[in-house]
Amino acid sequence: MRPWQRCGMAVVVALAATACGAGSGGGTGTDTDAAGRAGDGFPVQVADCRGARTTFDSAPRKIVTSNAASLEMLLRLGVGDRVIGTGFPPGKGALPGKLGAQARKVPVLGKSVIAKEKLLGSGADLYVDTFSSMGNMGGAGNAPTEEEFTAAGIKHVYLASTACASMAKKPQRDLSGVEGDIVRLGAVTGTSQRAREIVAGMRAKVAAVHKAIGDVPERKRPGYFFFDFDAGTKQPMAVCGKQVANAVISQAGARNVFAGCDGDFKPVSWEDVVTKDPDWIQLGVRNRGDAAATAKAYDQAAAFLKSFPATKGLRAVRDGKFLRIGSEHTTIAGVGNADAVERIARTLHPAEFPAGR
What we know:
Layout: H1 17-22, E1 44-47, E2 53-56, E3 63-65, H2 68-76, E4 83-87, H3 97-104, E5 108-110, H4 116-120, E6 126-129, H5 146-151, E7 155-158, H6 160-163, H7 176-189, H8 192-213, E8 223-228, E9 237-239, H9 244-251, E10 255-256, E11 265-267, H10 270-276, E12 280-284, H11 291-307, H12 315-318, E13 322-323, H13 328-331, H14 336-348
Parallel strand pairs: 3-4, 3-6, 4-5, 6-7, 8-10, 8-12, 12-13
Antiparallel strand pairs: 1-2, 9-11
């Protein structure tokens, strides 16, 4: 059994028996409160991508997150007051309402990867890492060693749906990896009940999509290309089978035309895109923090595809089959993945979603 296949959740990584049992009626069955005192569902044990384990006797009090994905999960779990810093902060407008307001209060330790010295000197007792082996995150190569984390008194855990994805043997075709990350962070922070509620909401939304569209055979799934406009237009960056976006696309009843490439992201050529000739293209644009600015970016992405010689003849471009769904909800692990599943499915399979449903 691979380390991320425990407790019946694809990326609940080696949770201790007490934490696993809380979701299935086994173990102690005791919910932990937000304070996460020793004894309230603890100790909890988690493992990294290679199986090395870390034990929590009580919930951490000072947390640093590597990027907006883990930050959002912690905010939704109700422990934002424990987050003392983040890297790759969410863009303005990327998080809704109160979540956005809470996120803006979190100190930014790095606009991208947090500098090693700043991270080790942050005073954190937990670092939640989204990247790990992800080689395309510039600067991650200067990350602290596990020995340096230990010396600084910082426990180090991962979002396995992203950090461990490239090491997995199979593609991500459902949201169990993201759900597992939420459940695991809930166990570590003493908020397991809230984590289960969040996951239940995601599952209900995806289940409604499945009920509407049924089991779409692979051969009948429309081809789908995620065009990461913000990554640049000189060479497209494909989302491969092991990226979270592949799970989102699959659950929506579509076929990621680059699902077969190995890893999570991979640079491809425009000739490769032309060969795939997708039925639909998602315009991957990050939230600009302003509705007009974001709409303008979508317009620019569409205009490029319509005018670029290599892509203007694609059937999706000719037919104007574009989806304007933010990159954050598609390629970054989080609750928004379930929302993206619903939006994609409603666009691609409109007949299955009568008005008002």
